[in-house]
Design goal:
Length: about 625
């Protein structure tokens, strides 16, 4: 039996609880990134952090969530019509990021909207926030504590500028209660009451937090040098990570009740974070006394040599003990627990993560087609209208109502709306171009198809076009007699890359692959409120299909001899694709040894240009 309630948190022995306590004590650490955490555990961590901030600040703390559908009006604020004692008036309604101490939860950093990502970059690590919107100006003290979740495998999808703003990196783990017996007893006791979703801290933990707020550790001089030894001297990296290490070490000293932050505490904090030394720390030089100059000794007279006794007559010397010398100054190195260091992962996985985002992921892509109709994409705000399309009527009326006191000659006059009041929706940019790749894996042997396809993949990356890969005859396909389709918002989607690296199977359902491509192109260009204005179709095939279209649709093996039915079905579907507008088709010919005319016929049916793919071992032998 489980419960969604969070019972009282104990002494805070877990690394996650200690990290949250340090974030509550140190304002410079109030941007927390939790790796590999479930949504329930992340919500519990946000509740714990809210309660800790309430204890350390002795103020009320709000909690809110950011996601994919946040707009500028929701985050920063907008004008709203309110009725009061003196009548109706327009007042500024602050957004989610307004004045006040609050905890902002981001369940999945990879799904954060572009507007919210820009707001995070503008506010994280700053003390003063400023807004200028629709003639309203305000400045206030920013008191926001951020906590976000992200999987280590998806860290390459997040902008490095946004990741750089998170000062504290913590491992995700479930928050355990003090005692399971007490938790079950409390759960049965509170069954009839309303559920309490907020975390409750134990009295011991609250007392420890209050005591830590009164401790202000001093920083030893060697602590700064030790913190710099954990990071490289790259001038392009900045000093955010060094500051985060020092602030975390200072907060841990407060939590432990230490009055001075030494190099040893910096090492312990770096070990807890998972950092490793990039250079050997410089040890303090011993203070040696000054030596006086040595005078040359006087010459000694050499005595006359006498005959030496035999070796057997000499007495045997007693064994002497070697004298142990101590250094003038003793330097104690901090203990290093290799096992604990091995358990911690790198807190900055973005340094080595594979790139899964656009080059300028925080910048809106340029519009290539100015004649595109409005009303496409998710609404993210409003803006002054320059064309009479996609008008936001509510925002327009609110804008016009602000000036009625100057425009109306009589009190009973209707609302006066001018062209300067018009507002239109501002929508998220959707891909305007589509790259469709039909790849026949059974004909790629002994040809340089990667080099031939690469220019089109590069074009899709530059233009931020959406990508659809149709796999024909790929090994490991779910259905051998059918082609399968893989779609992505950009070429950087991992499943697109893995799909291109698949091997060859046995069947070649070319007709079904072209049929999937035709359906996708027709839907992208003619259906829905999408923004696709141009599609590029790249077909890599030798034109030989051994599976009829009917067999692929029914997913049944043909009972009669196939003969040329698979090829004829593919040519018929290619003719249907030729009738689509705004589609540019290219056929890449692998130059097969047999039936060399089929790629040419396929290109003619598509109305496409044809280009030969060089052979894998295509060289000329000199005579």
């Amino acid at each position: 039996m489980t419960s969604d309630r969070v019972t009282a948190i104990g002494d805070g022995s877990s690394p996650l609880i200690q990290g949250l306590a340090c974030a509550a004590l140190q304002p410079g650490l109030r941007s927390v990134l939790v790796f590999d955490s479930s949504p329930q555990a992340l919500r519990s961590a946000a509740n714990v952090l809210t309660e800790m901030l309430t204890v350390t600040s002795d103020r009320a703390v709000k909690q809110m969530t950011l996601g994919r559908a946040d707009s500028d009006e929701t985050l920063w604020g907008t004008w709203s019509l309110k009725s009061g004692a003196l009548g109706e008036s327009f007042d500024w309604e602050a957004g989610l990021l307004g004045v006040g101490l609050k905890v902002v939860l981001i369940p999945d950093l990879t799904r954060l909207s572009l507007v919210a990502a820009r707001a995070c970059i503008a506010l994280m690590g700053t003390e003063i926030a400023q807004v200028e919107r629709h003639g309203y100006q305000a400045r206030w003290r920013s008191e926001i504590c951020w906590i976000a979740g992200c999987a280590r495998s998806d860290i390459g999808m997040v902008s490095p500028h946004l990741l750089d703003r998170f000062a504290l990196r913590l491992p995700g783990q479930e928050i355990q209660s003090i005692d399971r017996t007490d938790a079950l007893r409390d759960w049965f006791t509170e069954l009839e009451s309303s559920p309490d979703e907020s975390a409750r801290l134990s009295p011991e933990l609250c007392d420890r937090l209050r005591a830590a707020t009164s401790i202000h550790p001093t920083i030893a001089p060697d602590a700064y040098e030790r913190a710099l030894a954990y990071f490289s001297d790259d001038p392009g990296m900045g000093i955010r990570r060094e500051l985060a290490l020092m602030r975390f070490a200072q907060a841990r000293s407060q939590w432990a009740g230490v009055e001075q932050l030494s190099a040893r505490e910096v090492d312990r904090t770096a070990q807890a974070m998972g950092l490793k030394l990039t250079s050997l720390p410089s040890l303090p030089k011993p203070d040696l006394p000054e030596l006086s100059p040595v005078e040359p000794p006087e010459p000694i007279e050499t005595p006359t040599p006498t005959p030496s006794p035999s070796r057997s007559d000499l007495p045997k010397p007693a064994p002497e003990k070697a004298e142990v010398y101590r250094s003038d100054s003793e330097v104690t190195l901090p203990p290093t627990n290799l096992d604990a260091m091995g358990d911690r992962e790198n807190p900055y996985p973005e340094d080595d993560a594979a790139l899964q985002r656009e080059f300028a992921s925080l910048r809106l892509p340029p519009r290539r087609f100015q004649a595109a109709k409005g009303g496409r994409g998710a609404i993210i705000g409003t803006e002054p209208a320059t064309i009479p399309q996609d008008i936001a009527w509510v925002s327009t009326l609110l804008e016009a109502a602000k000036y009625q006191a100057f425009r109306q000659e009589r009190s009973d006059q209707a609302l006066v709306v001018r062209s300067t009041d018009l507002r239109r929706y501002r929508r998220a940019i959707v891909p305007e171009q589509l790259l469709m790749v039909v790849l026949d894996y059974t004909c790629l042997k002994d040809c340089q198809w990667q080099a031939s396809v690469w220019p089109y993949l590069q074009w899709a990356y530059v233009e931020r076009a959406s990508v659809c890969l149709v796999q024909v005859g790929a090994i490991g396909a779910a259905q051998e007699l059918q082609a399968q389709r893989i779609s992505g918002q950009s070429i950087l989607v991992p499943r697109i890359r893995s799909g291109l690296e698949a091997g060859a199977g046995r069947a070649t359902p070319l007709a079904h692959g072209l049929d999937l491509a035709c359906q996708t192109l027709r839907h992208a260009l003619q259906h829905g409120r999408n923004g696709v204005q141009r599609a590029v179709l790249v077909v890599v095939s030798d034109g030989r299909g051994n599976v009829p279209l009917e067999s692929s649709r029914l997913n049944q093996k043909p009972t009669q001899p196939v003969k040329r039915r698979g090829i004829e079905d593919a040519l018929a579907i290619a003719a249907d694709i030729q009738r689509l507008n705004q589609v540019e088709a290219i056929v890449l010919n692998p130059q097969p040894k047999y039936y060399a005319d089929l790629p040419v016929k396929l290109a003619q049916a598509l109305g496409a240009t044809i280009a030969d793919i060089p052979k894998q071992y295509d060289w000329e032998v000199e005579p």
